[in-house]
Design brief:
Length: 88
C-alpha cells in the first residue's frame, strides 16, 4: 500500500463523511436561519426557542436520510473490504 492509495482512501472517507453529515447539517442550518429571521422580525429574543424546532427537524432529517446514509456507508465499507482483500 503506497502513499497514493492512502491519500485516495482518505479522500474517499472524507467525501463519505460529507455526504452523510451534509443533509443533516443543512437541515439544521436552514431551520436555524428561519428561526433567527422569525426572531428578528418579531423581536422575540428567547434563547430556548431555537432548540426544540432544531431537534425536531434534525430528528426528522435523520429519519428521512437514513436509507441514503446507510447505502453510502455500506458502499464505502464494501469498497474498503475489497481493497483489503486485493492487498492481502
Amino acid at each position: 500500500m503506497n502513499e497514493v492509495m492512502v491519500l485516495e482512501l482518505a479522500r474517499e472517507a472524507l467525501w463519505v463523511i460529507l455526504k452523510m453529515a451534509g443533509p443533516i447539517m443543512l437541515s439544521g442550518l436552514s431551520i436555524g436561519l428561519i428561526i433567527a429571521l422569525f426572531q428578528a422580525l418579531t423581536t422575540i429574543q428567547e434563547m430556548t426557542l431555537t432548540f426544540v424546532p432544531k431537534i425536531v427537524v434534525i430528528f426528522l432529517a435523520v429519519v428521512a436520510f437514513l436509507p441514503f446514509m446507510m447505502t453510502t456507508l455500506v458502499e464505502f465499507g464494501t469498497g474498503l473490504f475489497d481493497r483489503i482483500v486485493a492487498i492481502g
